[in-house]
Amino acid sequence: MEIKRAKSPDDELSIAAFPQILRDIGSPWGEAVSVEVRPAEDLGRADRPGKKPGRSIFKVDISWASQRQRFIAVANSTSTPKAVKEAIERAREASDADSAALAMILVPFLSNDQAERLIREKVSGLDLCGNGVIVVPEQLLLCRTGRPNTWPDSRPTKYAYRGMTSLVPRVFLCKREFKAVGEIKEEIQKRGGSVVLSTVSKALTRMVEDVVISRESGSIRLVQPNKLLDMLAEQFEQPKIQERVRLRGRAEDLFRLANEQPRQTQLVMSGASSQDRYAAGLRSDDPIVYCKNIRELERILGDSWTPDERFGDLTVAEPSDDVPFFDARTEDGDITYASPVQAYLELNATKEKRDRDMARSIRERILKESSDAAP
Prior knowledge:
Elements: H1 18-25, E1 33-39, E2 57-64, E3 67-75, H2 81-95, E4 102-107, H3 112-121, E5 124-127, E6 132-136, E7 140-144, H4 167-171, E8 177-178, H5 181-190, H6 197-209, E9 213-216, E10 219-222, H7 225-235, E11 241-247, H8 251-260, E12 267-269, H9 275-278, E13 288-291, H10 294-301, E14 314-319, E15 329-330, E16 336-337, H11 340-348, H12 353-372
Parallel strand pairs: 3-4, 4-5, 13-14
Antiparallel strand pairs: 1-2, 2-3, 5-6, 6-7, 8-10, 9-10, 11-14, 12-13, 15-16
Helix pairs in contact: 11-12
């Protein structure tokens, strides 16, 4: 049966539709365990401020064998870590109104990690995809996970960790705390990026929901650098290349020649080709140099431009956006390297074991540098 998503003015998914959806998909554990969900208007005082009384509070009866247990469930129309955390807290508060009831949450999707959290916190939970956790102390523990998310998040900030918007989370790995949104924008610009304030604000909203940063009066602070790197890696896509040319010669000479010209075009080693700057070991493939404008580079190099598609020694590639140039590092000499975050993400996204081993080493370095930068 196709389930239509009912929408309300302030929810992507209408919470009022939860009971019918749960009836349609049935119990995660089949006929051996029955699930009955119904509204609990009389418990509206435990709902969020500003919402209609009782709209997100439900009574749930779970029956198995000859046993039956009542739950007070709080529903949330999103499944972000922050939403799950708040639902758990509100479910505990709501269940206090009924001494015979236990706490439960209802969300669109429960991930494996969220299911494990529910078990640790001794709170039950059901989702709208057929996953669930039932915890009845000293009587019953059931867990069903692995069914795919059929209610994906469609908000614009879903891709806070991808593309140009990813510069916002990336900058927190360079500096862990800011006082204001404008300060974040300025730090991104200082490191070679460019984003508008609205993009910064949207990305911050998502990062708060994911409990990656905390946002309080006068402080926007990174709290989970490990999780931030996980989110960046999960949504990372290798740079899309608009044009590429193979050239004869060494990367060092290309950078030197380009830097000597009065009209420069920005060059940076790719993340994967920057690995020897941040981790032990060398890759055997030819280096890749990212260039903001290949045609401009060709013009300024003139006779020193030596294309050779068959026997070239390196590749010059023009990405579709400027993300690979963010936080680039130039040390002694002429070569500019990609940031350690870009190097980690590119190497981690390959299938080569050696690349992924180097990515892990670079990740450890990033986390150490982030920790050292903490105020």
